[in-house]
Design brief:
Blueprint: H1 7-10, H2 12-20, E1 23-28, E2 34-41, E3 44-52, E4 61-65, H3 69-86, E5 92-96, H4 101-109, H5 117-124, E6 129-133, E7 145-149, H6 154-175, H7 182-198
Parallel strand pairs: 4-5
Antiparallel strand pairs: 1-2, 2-3, 3-4, 5-7, 6-7
Helix pairs in contact: 2-3, 6-7
């Protein structure tokens, strides 16, 4: 972490330890500005993080992977809030969603990431721009991920939320007419809550 000049990301290990009541193991990354974190509770791993502190015009980011589903769900929302606070405007978090069957199924069905279980939590933590990274073949790209970005400024945030409202309108109009499997029903409930209560979409 010696090469981490990013105030929020340099403080991340201490912040995670304090706010999540977890043991945090820090390891060197592939280069000076990168480091790796393992979060543990009572000897069991909760998850791993890869953190890039930025370099020149390259912005910082956080990646969440190797998730222990049972333990992670207890700290998930707080971890997203901590990540949002630590990142600078315009910087993203990447969350491996392969461990979450509901999110996998919804993404495969074509649902927008904002209405998935993980995406909804990221959005309500403050992130407003989303992208799904899915590579059906290859070996170097890593696992499937939801990218969620902290808005660069207020104007960008407004554009992001307008786009999300469009996604919600399309999703609710399309999937209301389909059989409501458990995952779809949960996603529709999230979409309506976002559209009508949290975002107040026109």
């Amino acid at each position: 972490m010696e090469g981490c000049g990013h105030e929020g990301l340099r403080a991340l290990p201490e912040t995670l330890s304090r706010r999540l009541n977890a043991y945090v193991r820090v390891r060197r990354g592939r280069f000076t500005e990168e480091y790796n974190l393992g979060l543990y509770r009572e000897g069991d791993m909760i998850l791993e993080l890869k953190v890039f502190c930025g370099r020149g015009y390259y912005r910082g980011w956080i990646e969440v992977f190797n998730v222990n589903e049972k333990l992670f769900k207890d700290v998930e929302e707080e971890l997203y809030r901590i990540a949002y606070d630590a990142l600078k405007p315009g910087e993203p978090i990447y969350v491996d969603y392969s461990w979450d069957p509901e999110t996998v199924k919804l993404i495969d069905m074509g649902a927008p990431p904002e209405v998935t279980r993980i995406g909804f939590k990221l959005l309500t933590s403050g992130f407003t721009w989303f992208k799904v990274w899915y590579y059906p073949e290859g070996f170097m790209e890593g696992s499937v991920k939801i990218q969620a970005e902290k808005a660069l400024n207020e104007e960008a945030k407004i554009r992001h939320l307008e786009s999300i409202c469009g996604n919600l309108k399309s999703f609710t109009s399309t999937f209301t007419e389909t059989p409501r499997a458990g995952e779809v029903r949960a996603a529709l409930e999230r979409a309506l809550k976002l559209r009508d209560e949290l975002l107040g979409c026109p």
